Fold these 2 entries.
Entry 1:
Amino acid sequence: MPTDECSRPSTTVSAPNTTSRRAFVSAAGAGATLGLAGCLGGDEDDTIKVGFVFATSGPYSLLGESHINGFQLRIDEELGGELDGREVEYVQRDTGGDPETGVTIAEEFIQSEDVDFLVGPVSGAVAFAMEPIVGQYEDEVVWLSTNSANNDLSYARGEYQTRNMFLGYQAWQLAAATGEWVYDNLGETAALSYADYAAGIEYTEDFQDGYEEAGGEVLGDVAMPLGEDDYSPYLSTIEDTDAEVVWSFFAGADAVNYIRDFHEFGLDEEMTQAGAAFLLSADTLEAQGEAAEGKYSSSIYTLDYESETNDEFKSSYESAYDTDPNIYAVLSYDGAQMMETAVEETGGVNPPELIEAMEGMELDSPRGPFEMDPDLHVPVHDVHMREVQMDDDGEPYNEVVDTIESVRPPW
Amino acid sequence: MSEKSIPTDRAATKSDGVLGKRGKYGLLTLGILAVIIGPIVDVIDPFWFRLLVNVLVFALFAASLDLVFGYTGLPSFGHAAMFGAGGYAAALLLLNGFASALVVLPIAILVTIFISVIIGWISARTKDLYFSFITLAFAQILFIAAFIDLPARILSPDRITRGDDGLVGVPAYDLGVTLTDPMYYYFFTLVVVAAGVYTIIAVANSPFGRVLRGIHENEERMRAIGYNVTNYKVLAFTISGALTGLAGALYVPHSSVAHPNLFHWLVSGELVIIVLVGGMGSIWGPMVAAGLFVYLEHVLSAFANWLLILGLIYVVFVIFVPDGLSELLKRAVRNPRDVPNNAKRSIKSYINSVRYR
Amino acid sequence: MSVQATLLGLQIAMAYFLIVAGLVIIYGMMDVINVAHGSLYMLGAYIGLTLYDVVGNFFVILVVAPLLVGIIAAGLETLTIRPLYGRHPLYHILLTLGLALIIEEVVKIVWGVDTHRIPTPEVLSGQIVVGSVNFPRYRLFVIGISLLVAVAMYLVFTRTKFGIIMRASSSDAEMVDALGMDVSKVYTAVFVAGSMLAAFAGVLMGVTNAVTPTMGIDIIIIAFAILVIGGAGSLLGVVISSLIVGMLVAYVSLFAPAMSELIIYLLMAAVLIVKPSGLLGE
C-alpha cells in the first residue's frame, strides 16, 4: 500500500490514498510549507532530501555545526549541490541535545518531510532514543549516525539495532583497542578519570578492559560530574594513586578545564596523561595551550595527518569556512561521501538498496582509507596514537606517533 | 509575595471563581474543537497531529502549575520534579510488562503524590523566592539522581534509570486495544487531560479553592481567621503535583523516552514562563500559551540562533503584554475597536518609562 | 584536614562570592531576580578575551572589560528593566531569562561556539609553596583580589554617600525621593555595579575556566543557590554561604566525587528547612 511510504508505517487508520491526500493539501495551498512533496513517487523524485538532527544550541553546538559544515562541504561545495543529477535539499532542526526533541524531529523528518537520509545526532542519548523509532522506518530512510559512539548502537550487537543506521566510530575502537599500546608505551599502572555520564563510563570501562588484558594494572578511578568547571579538588585523588599513566575521558570545555587544571597543579611532572580523542583535539587545543604538551590521545582523525586526501580536504574546508576542520566535520564529510557513492551506485534513493551498497563500502577519507563493516555498520579504520607537541609559534598540535591499523570491534 | 502588583480580575473571581460561565463554555468549545480538529490535522500532516498530543500534555501541565503558582500564589520552580516522576514511573512500569493504562496511570499518580507531599510539606514553610528555590533544589536533586542513576548505585549494580541514556523505546498504553495508533493515543490523552482540567477547575471553584485564593490575597488574615494555611498549601501543591505527574505519564509513552531532562530546571522554568505569558491564575490562559509554545518552539528550532528570537519574544511580551494573554484576549473580545489604541498607549507608556525624569 | 583542599575550598568560595556579590546587590536593592547575571559574567569573559588580543595585558583587561559590560548593562537596564518597576518580581525572571537567551546567542554570532581561555598572566603562572603543598599562584591571586573586593564593597556600603543612598533605595524609595535623588538613576547605578562585578568575575575565571557560550547558564543556578542559602539580600550571608559551599565542594569532591554537585542542592534544602529565609535572611 503506497500510503505507508509516506506516513507512519503500521497504523490501521483508514486513510485516503496518497495522491488524494496530497491533492487535498495542495488545494489548501499548504503543500510547500508542510513539505509533503517527497511523497509522490519515491524513486522518481528529482531531489534528494537530507534531514540534519543535530544540536545547534547548548554545549553540543560546536559539534553540531561542524558536522553540518562537513556534510555540506562535500555535497554543496565540492559537488555543486547535486548527486546523480538530482538536487540535494536540507531540512534542519535543533535538538538542543535533548532525546525527546531528537525523537520528535526524527519523526517529523520521516513523516512530514519525507527525508531520504537522516544525519545526526551528536549525543549518544539522543541516538538511543531515536533508534526504536527510526527502526520502524527501515524501508523509508537511511540513517547516517555520523557521530554516535556507543558500542551498543552498532548493528548485530546489544539490544538496540537498526539495520539502516551507520555509525561514525565506536567507543571500543578509541578505548579498548588502545589499551595495549598505552601499556607498551606509556606505563604499566594507570589511574582513570572521566566525566560521569554514559559516554564517559563506557569509554573508561572499555579502556580498562583493554589495558588490563594487556597486563596493565588500574590503581584507582575518579568519576567527575559532567560540566564541572573546576577539576582541582579531584586531582589529589589521582595523584595519590602514584600511577604512571592517567587515562581520561573528557570533551569540549570539560577537556579544556581538566587539562589546564592538571597542568596547573603540576601533575604533568609525575604522570603521563592519555585519553580518548576529544581530550586533546583540534577544538580544544587552542584553549589548552602549553598545558596540552606531551599528552597522548587516540583518534581516528588528526588534523596534521599526512595524506593527499587530507590536504585537499583541509584546504577545501578552510576556504569554505575559514577555519580548520575537526574530527566531527570529517565524520559527516565521510557520511556525505557514503551517501554520494551509494546513490551513484544504485542510481536512486531506495533505502534497502542504499543500505546494501553501504555495507562493505570502501572510502578514501581524510582520516585515511576505511571500510564500512557489513555486519556492524561501523567503519573499520585506523586508530592514530598522537602526542601533543608545540610548533615554532608555540601553538600545540597533534603529532601521530603510531597507528593501530584496521581496528574492528570484536563482536 | 506582595499582592500589590499581581494582576487579578478580582471582581470576576469573587462572583464566579476561576472561569466564569462564559469561560467554561469557551473551554468546552475548545475541547469539542480538539475532537474535530485532531482527525483533520492528521489528514493534512500526521506529524503535526502528533504534536497535538504534546499540546494537550503541556496544557495540563500548565494548568496544574497555575493552580499553585497563579491561583494559590506559590511560585514553584520545581514542577519538573513531578513531571519527571510521573514520566519515569510510567516508563519503568511500561518497560517491565505492565501495559494497562488503568494500572500504570494510577501508580504513576500515587508516586507523584508521594513526592509532592514531601516536597510540598518541606517547602510550604518558606515563601516567595525561597519557595521557588527550595522546590527547584528538589527537582535538581531528582535530575542528578536520574542522571547518575543513583537508585542503581545505591540498590544494586544493575541499571535502573539508565543514567543519561534514559529509558528509551517506552511502549504505548494498552486499554483493551493498544494505543500505538496515534489517533487512539490522541483521544485517550484528550479524555484524560479533560478530566484533569475539570478537576483543576472544580478544585479552584470549591470552598477549598476559595481558601487558596484567600491565602494568595492575604495569608496573615487567613491564618488569623483560623485556617491552617500550611496544610492548605501542601494539599494544593499535592493536587497540582499529582496532575503534573499525570501529564508526565502521558508524555513519556508518547515521546517513547524518559530522560533526566524531564526533571531539569529549564523544564520548570519554561512552564513558569508559559504561566506568566498565559496570565497567572486564569487557568485557561496558560493552557493556550502552552499550545502556542509547543508549536512556536518547534517551528523556530529550524532556524540558526532561534533562541535569540525566543529571547526577544520574552522581552517584548513581558514589557508590552504585562497581564498575559488571558487579559489581552479578554480585552480584545470585550472591546475589539480598542485594540489599536491599547497598543499605542502601551508603546507610549514604554517610551515614558525609559526616559529619565 | 588537607591544606590543599582547604585552600581550594577557599578559592572556589571566593570565585562564587564574586559572581553572587553582584546578584545580591541587584536583588537586595532592586528586588530584581536577574537570571541574565550569568550571561553578563560570560560576556565579561568574552570581551576580556578580545581585549586581550588587542592589549595583551591581563591587568588592563581586568579593569576595562567590566567597564564595557557596565555600559551594556546600563543600556539593558534602561530599555528593559526600568519599564517593569513596580511589577511583581516574577516578571523580572521572564524578562531576564529572555535577556540571557539574547546575550548567549549574540555571543555565539560574534565569537562563535569554540572553547577559549584567557592565558594565565606571566607573573602569576606557576606554583608557590604554601605550608606543605604547592599551590598555583594564580589561584592565590583570585583569593586575594576577591577578599579585596569584599572589603571594598563593605566600605562602599557603610562609608560612602553612594552606598547610603543605595541602601536607602532598597528600604524606602520615597526617602531617596525626599533626598532629591532620582530613584531610577540609583537603580541604574546598582544594576551597572552588579553587572560590572559579574564581568570582573568573568575575566578572572576566564583564566581557570573554559570560556564558552554556555558558561553563563551553567553557573546561574548555583549562584542563586548560594544567594538563597545566605539569605537573599544579605552581603555577609552571601560571604558565609560562599565559604560553606566552596569548602563543601572541595571536600566532597575529594571523598565522594559523584556527590559534589548534589551536595549543593541538599545543603540548600537543609538550610531552608531549618531557616526558611536563608542563613542571614530577615
Note: The domain at 3-274 of chain C is CATH 1.10.3470 (ABC transporter involved in vitamin B12 uptake, BtuC).
Entry 2:
Amino acid sequence: MSVTILFLGPLRDLAGEQEREVAAPLDWKGLLEAVGPEIAEQLGEERVNVACKGKVLADKRTLHAEDGDEVALLPPVSGG
Amino acid sequence: MSVGEALAAFNAAHDGAGGVVSFLGKVRPEGGVKALELSHYEPLTLPGMQDLAEQARERFDLAGVLAWHRIGVMKPGEAIVLVATAARHRRNAFEAADFLMDHLKSAAWLWKRERRDDGWHWIEPRDQDHEDLARWN
C-alpha cells in the first residue's frame, strides 16, 4: 500500500532523490508531512503544481492519492 | 534518425504541401556553459507536445507538423529541438514554426539546468520568452 512521490526539476535537488515511496492513501496534509519542511514551503507557492496519475490538479489541496498512484511535484518549468 | 533524415522523411510524407519550414534549436556555445540537461515528466510532457502540435495544425491549416525535443545531457553545438511544418503556403508554415517554438521555449513541461565552471544552475524562462509566448494570445 504505497504512493510514489516524484520530485521534478529543482525539487529533485532539494529532496536529494528522484522519488520516494510513502504509505497510501495520501492527501495534501500527508504530502506536506511526507516531503519535509523545505519542500512543503515550495508546495505552498502557487506556481508549484501537483499532478496525480499524470494529471495536473486544478486545486492541489484536493489531492487524494491511493495505492499505486504516482504524485508528481512540478516546479515552474524552464521550457526547452 | 538524424535531423537530415527526419526532414527528408517529413518532406516525403507531405509531397502535396507548397512549402516546408524547419527550425533546429541548439545549445549555444557561449556564456561559459559546458553542458545543458533537460528533464521531463512524460505523462505530461508528451501529451502537452501532442496537443501543441494539434493546435498549430488547426490554427495554421497545416498539412503536417514535426516536433522533436531531446532530453538528457547535451553539449554546446548539439541539437536540442527540431520543429518542421508543412503547409500549402509559406506564411502559414513560417508562423506555425514560430508558434511551436515560442510555446516549447516557455510553456512545455521541461526543466533545464546548465553546467558552468562553478556547477549546475537551474534555468527559468527569460522575460523575453514569456513576451514571445504572449504574442499568440
Note: The mean pLDDT of chain B is 95.
